[in-house]
């Protein structure tokens, strides 16, 4: 029997598989075991992971990151106001 574990962090995500008494973290298409939790949109495509993180300066208005930090917060000022004011 196999088990799958998913880690959805504030800034990254990864997947691990436990099978036959051994655990292993699954590598993404770039060979990395941790993927940045970033999604970017353009007119023609959706970009995820490292490519989206690297393009966030050129495409900041269409890039989604740090979503977990605003979940459950009050919407008095809107989620983007809080997110942008706390972006390093």
TrEMBL record:
Keyword ATP-binding: yes
Keyword Nucleotide-binding: yes
Keywords in alphabetical order: ATP-binding, Nucleotide-binding
Pfam families: HSP70 (PF00012)
SUPFAM superfamilies given in the database record: Actin-like ATPase domain
Residues in the signal sequence: none
Entry's Gene Ontology molecular function annotations: ATP binding; ATP-dependent protein folding chaperone
Family: Belongs to the heat shock protein 70 family.
Protein name: Heat shock protein family A (Hsp70) member 14
Lineage, top ranks: Eukaryota, Metazoa, Chordata, Craniata, Vertebrata
Gene coding for it: HSPA14
């Amino acid at each position: 029997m196999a088990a799958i574990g998913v880690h959805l962090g504030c800034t990254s995500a990864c997947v691990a598989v436990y099978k036959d008494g051994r655990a292993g973290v699954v590598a993404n298409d770039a060979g990395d075991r941790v993927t940045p939790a970033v999604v970017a949109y353009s007119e023609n495509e959706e970009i995820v992971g490292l490519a989206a993180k690297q393009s966030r300066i050129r495409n900041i208005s269409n890039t989604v990151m740090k979503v977990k930090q605003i979940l459950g917060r009050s919407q008095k000022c809107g989620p983007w106001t809080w997110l942008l004011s706390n972006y390093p």
